[in-house]
């Protein structure tokens, strides 16, 4: 039987909200994914690209459309390319119709490639829809796990943008929350190279871990926005912490000055990320890229509902998001 996680690993994940699994991929598997990434970056056509830039914003109050053009919103079952805003010298001028100008080769200007590498790229599919991942999902308590939002995050040298503290269930909300992220380093990631920063234990209700906001499609169809979450904030089994959270001192909620685990992740290692844990990454100011492949798993068994307002919606054909258990 394929091995998943040890009891100690499961316990660490539930306590801290994340887990590093060294040597998750072999050297050859990692190299094949890097090669596939570079091939995709080389081969996509620039002339027909809408030059969509990826940014979510991070303000519940600004009421401005975030990324959400058709190229982005229909990417859930495709392989598409999203640019770093810092790779351009100017913005699109709506009065003249002029497009922003790239200041770097296209291969060094992409923020991420997504969002269905796990179905459309054979090398990525092989390491995603695997017996080992099915075993890991079982060990984490999933009944009918589905894979979605697979992407390579490139973190280009010098311009790879910071990702502010966030919780993944804000973006892939189920009722109740269930998302877990698989984050696989394709290149070494450490301090100074925009590695992950984890707020340990911040997924717990008493630490402010409930999902309080959501990233959704705007009702007017004009992009995406953050809204206040009105549904359950904690995964099933953690609901008892809701009352503790309501009564807690505000100082218990994670803050920028709180303890952050800055991870050292070698190429080929896996980081499992609880959907409610607060995490971030800094801007890549180093001279080297930081490729990482990430996908998410949600529960789709009876009793969990994937929200119809999420920016990412299941394909219209087939049985929806990819089933992980065979």
Protein architecture, described:
With 326 residues, the protein is α+β, with helices and mostly antiparallel strands. It has a single domain (7-88, 99-323), classed as q2cbj1_9rhob like domain (Jelly Rolls, Sandwich), CATH 2.60.120.620. The chain is 18% helix and 22% strand. The chain has seven helices and 16 strands. Strands 1, 2, 3, 4, 7, 12, 14 and 16 form an eight-stranded antiparallel beta sheet that branches. Strands 5-13-8-11 form a four-stranded antiparallel beta sheet, with no helix packed on it. Strand 9 and strand 10 (224-228) form a beta hairpin. The chain is globular. Residues 59-64 have low confidence and may be disordered. Its cofactor is Fe cation.
Full CATH superfamily name: q2cbj1_9rhob like domain
Helical stretch count? 7
- Tertiary shape: globular
Domains, number: 1
Count the E strands: 16
Return the CATH topology.
Answer: Jelly Rolls
Largest sheet: 8 strands, antiparallel
Give the % helix.
Answer: 10-25%
List low-confidence stretches: 59-64
Short description:
This protein is α+β, with helices and mostly antiparallel strands. Helices cover 18% and strands 22% of the residues.
Task: Give structural attributes.
326 residues; alpha+beta; Jelly Rolls; 16 strands; 18% helix; 22% strand
Topology readout:
Layout: H1 7-16, E1 18-21, H2 27-43, H3 70-73, E2 79-83, E3 110-115, H4 117-120, H5 122-128, H6 131-139, E4 145-153, E5 163-166, E6 174-175, E7 180-185, E8 196-198, E9 213-217, E10 224-228, H7 241-247, E11 261-262, E12 270-274, E13 279-281, E14 292-299, E15 305-306, E16 322-323
Antiparallel strand pairs: 1-12, 2-3, 3-4, 4-14, 4-16, 5-13, 6-15, 7-12, 7-14, 8-11, 8-13, 9-10
